[in-house]
Amino acid sequence: MKVRIFVTLKDGVLDPQGKAIHHALESLDFKGVNDVRAGKLIELDVDPSVTREEIDKMCDKLLANTVIENYQIELPETAS
Amino acid sequence: MQSAVIVFPGSNCDRDMAVALETVSGNKPHMVWHGDSELPSGLDIIAIPGGFSYGDYLRSGAMASRSSIIKPVIEAANRGVKILGVCNGFQILTETGLLPGALMRNSNINFVCKDAELEVTNNTTVFTSRYAKNESISIPVAHHDGNFFADSETLDRLENEGRVVFRYRSDINGSSRNIAGIINEAGNVLGMMPHPERAIDAKHGGTDGLALFESLLN
Questions:
Q1: Where are chain A's structural domains?
Q2: Could you report the per-residue pLDDT of A23-66, keeping only the tens digit for each?
Q3: CA distances from residue A50 to A59, A66, A75, A76, B192 in whole angstroms, order as listed
Q4: Residue B11 contacts residue B49 (beta carbons within 8 Å)
Q5: Cβ distance B161 to B184 under 8 Å?
Q6: CATH fold of A2-74, please?
Q7: pLDDT value at position B2?
Q8: Which fold has domain B3-215?
Q9: Mean pLDDT of the region B80-99
Q10: By a Cβ cutoff of 8 Å, what residues of chain B touch chain A?
Q11: Of B59, B95, B149, Cβ closest to residue A13
C-alpha cells in the first residue's frame, strides 16, 4: 500500500527556500505568483496491516518536526 | 573531568572537540559511536559535536537524534550530566527535545562560514562562568541551518529565565532575537551554533572558546 505524506512548514514560519524560488520565478518573468512555500513529499510502501494511527506516530516521531512542520497523510482510496 | 564525545557518521568536529576537552582536563575523552547503547560510567560531560550527521537527511540532526546512543544521553541529561551540543550537536539536541525550538535554513539561504561576534548573555551557567557578563567574544561559525526558530511564547520564556546564553552581535542567519546558544531549564544542557572548540589555540586565530571549556572544570 502506497502512502503519501506531505510535510509543510507551519504558517508563520519563514520559508527561505520558498522565498528564493519565488524570487527566481519572478526573475523568469512569471507574473501573478503571490507566495511560494516549499515542502517535502515522502512516499511509504507499507503492508496493508499498517494502521493510520501507526503512520501518524511515524510522522510525529520522525518524519515531521512538529515544532515547525505540519504533515498531511494521503492514503490510497480503499478498494471496495 | 571525565568526558565523552558522541561520534555519528558524518560528524567532522568530533576530534577538535576531543582536543579541546583534553586540553583543559588533561584526560582523554571517550569517543562513543552512535550505534552503542550505553555510555561509559562516571561522565561529567558529554559533547555532541558538529558535522553533518547522516548527510543532514530529512532534517539536520533528525536521524542522529533517533540513534541508539541518544537514549542513554537523554537519561544522563536527566541525571544532571552536562551536555554540550555544538552546531550539528545543537540541531540534534533540539530534535531530541532536550532543548526547545528548531534550527532552520539560514534566512539568506547561504552557508555562513566566518568568525562571528557574540555576546555572552548569561555568564552564570556552568558553561560560561569564566566569561564576563555581556563579554564580546569572537567564535567561528560554519552552518547552513543555524536559523534558530521558536514561537514567541517560548522565546519570551527563554529570555525571562536567562536561558539565552549567547547572542550574535549582528544578524548572520536570521535567528530569532539573534540567539546563538540556549540552555535547558535545569542548566546542564547547552546548545550553540558557533564552534568554541575551533577557538582554543592561538594558531586557530583566537582563543575565545577556551573559557567555555575551562568553565566546565569548576
A1: 2-74
A2: 999 999 999 999 999 999 999 999 999 999 999 999 999 999 99
A3: 14, 22, 11, 13, 39
A4: yes
A5: no
A6: Mth169; Chain: A , (3.30.1280)
A7: 97
A8: Rossmann fold (3.40.50)
A9: 98
A10: 58-59, 62, 66, 94-95, 100-102, 104-109, 147, 149-150, 174
A11: B149
Q: Which residues of A touch B (CB under 8 A)?
A: 13-14, 16-17, 20, 61-63, 65, 67-68
Are B124 and B107 in contact, with CB atoms under 8 Å apart? no
For B118-144, give one letter per residue: b (16+ CB within 10 A) or e. bbbbbbebebbebbeeeeebbbbbbbb
> What are the grid coordinates assigned to B80, written together?
544532571
Please determine, for the modelled complex, whether the ipTM score is greater than 0.90. no
Q: Helices B88-96 and B70-79, interaxial angle, to 10°?
A: 80
What number of other Cβ atoms are within 10 A of residue A41's Cβ? 10
Encode pLDDT of B90-142 as tens digits.
Answer: 999 999 999 999 999 999 889 999 999 999 999 999 999 999 999 999 999 99
